[in-house]
Amino acid sequence: MNKYRTQYNDELSEESIGKTVKVCGFVENIRDHGGVIFVDVRDEKGLVQIVSNDDNMFEGLTKESAVTLEGTVRMRDEENFNPKIKTGTIEVLASSFEILGRANNELPFEIISSPFVNEEVRLKYRYLDLRNEKVHENIKFRSEVIKFLRNKMDSLGFIEIQTPILTASSPEGARDYIVPSRKYKGKFYALPQAPQQFKQLLMVGGFDKYYQIAPCFRDEDARADRSPGEFYQLDMEMAFATAEDVYEVAEEVIYETFTKFSNKKVSSKPFRRITYKEAMEKYGTDKPDLRNPLEIIDVTKCFENTTFKPFSGSIIRGITVHDIASKSNSWFNELVDYAKSIGMPGIGYISVLDDMTLKGPIDKFLTEEEREDLIKTAGLKAGSVLFFIADKNEMIASLNAGMMRTEIGNKLGLIDNDRFEFCFIVDFPMYEYSKEEGKYIFTHNPFSMPQGGMDALLNQKPEDILAYQYDIVCNGIELSSGAVRNHDVKIMEKAFEIAGYTKEELKARFKSLYTAFHYGAPPHAGIAPGVDRMIMLLKDEPNIREVIAFPLNSNAQDMMMEAPSEISEKQLREVHIKIR
Q: Residue 172: pLDDT above 70?
């Protein structure tokens, strides 16, 4: 029998009246009602009110102290009923009461309101923050989701395998966290950005279906949907598999997870598939929020011969919004201000009046033919407004249009927060040209198979080559990345050559993978949904740190453990490091 408790608080009810019980937990509140002291004790399951006939029993008691007590359950006086809690009609008359761990009189914050406290303070005292019911439930919820994911993957025939944490540095898109070696002077391990090479080697090793809840380490800046330093993903890989096989598994796992753990409407399977090119043209991003009904259109051709200088020679994107022509000038001015805040000179627009004439500064530059063409292309009708986003650079025009689409959708309240809209973004470009590096670089995963194989690498321009790469996007957040892997050595050599790697560099940087592929590598493919992001979406949290037990802050600092920290000269000497 447990020394400290016989029941959790949520197990107590009116049926427990008259029974002797032992409970334990933390003191949430101490109330003195005219000489009668009421103590609220909180455990992981709930809250119960404690009273005593002994005036001295609670002497010296402080809030948040850890306590255990024994007593008899009885009915509360009716005027003291609390309908907000499960045990609101009962209380425990304590016969014994013991303080197991006394808390300081001064708390850094009230536990009940900790989510509203400055984040730096919350993270410094995270162990107290975790006592808050909402924060605590987030972490318990995380455990339930991960348990479900493991059970689901097991049921689909996947084997959970742990891959190394100390490994070699590899160019996978972000900065590595490096670990100096004590035994090998001047050499370093790296923490894995993902288990990418290891899971591919498992496929070479004859495993058909692998998964793990994998920790990944990347030295990159924080965002609301990205935790700096480390994150977890449901990493999976399948041998003798195509992209379609991966889509089917990923859809089943994600659909069942989101329908089980949320009451929101989830987009049905199969998830919509949108090419990267279509996503950039229609939504101005490769992470489109499909809850927003607005779409971007290309109106460049409507202005081929325009005399309006800002549009001359530019790529011009348009966003048509119906029934808003009557909005106030201040409403439109707010949009102009937002456009300026993202680096645009402003945003042009024209309104359609009831008689289908156009109103706006741009209208005077339009010929009658251009006017008719614009009305037809943009699907304008009385009350419509057409917004224009123009730039000489096509990518900038698309990205700006995407941000304006999101802002307009939010301002008009078009986003339905009771839906999860999933899609696959497919057909990513294999390469892009980096002016900074003066060469072509991989846009996504360097281990992906190019569409068209060797023929594409030999005969297409690098910027025209597509890869078998795919992302899962939900409500504007990238949930997952994956790809069909390049298992052919010759194709791999050519693919890396285009990105500026010699055969010798490829061998040196990816020696194990490169060598293994000489021994009969099967076609294989995989994907890795982000666990933290899934839970953030399911709990409708605006910040990913709310679903991580001990997160780093936005500056990649652990306020509680005071990391990163300095280390001793002795430790530095042991790993052959001198601080410059």
A: no
Q: Which CATH class is domain 292-415?
A: alpha beta
Count the neighbouring beta carbons within 10 Å of the beta carbon of residue 205: 12
In the three-class reduction of DSSP (H, G, I as helix; E, B as strand; rest coil), residue 185 is classed as coil
173 — pLDDT class (breaks 50, 70, 90): low
Given this chain, do its domains 119-262+530-580 and 292-415 carry the same CATH topology?
Answer: no
Q: Is the pLDDT of residue 578 over 80?
A: yes
Reported CATH class of domain 119-262+530-580: alpha beta
Mean pLDDT score across all residues of the chain: 94
Task: Collapse the DSSP code of 470 into the 3-class scheme (helix H, G, I; strand E, B; otherwise coil) and give the result.
Answer: strand
Distance from CA of residue 174 to its chain's centroid? 17
Q: Give the Å distances, CA to CA, from 507 to 205, 406, 484, 502, 513.
A: 19, 45, 21, 9, 9
Alpha helices in 262-367 (DSSP H): 276-283, 329-341
Task: Provide the 3-class DSSP secondary structure of residue 475.
Answer: coil
Give the closest residue to 304 by CA, choosing from 370, 387, 227, 384: 370
Angstrom distance (rounded) from CA 256 to CA 264? 12
* Residues in CB range of 452: below 8 A, 6 or more apart: 460, 465, 466
Q: What is the CATH number of domain 9-101?
A: 2.40.50.140
Instruction: Output the DSSP codes for 487-554.
Output: --HHHHHHHHHHTT--HHHHHHHTHHHHHHGGGTPPPEEEEEEBHHHHHHHHTT-SSGGGGSSS---T
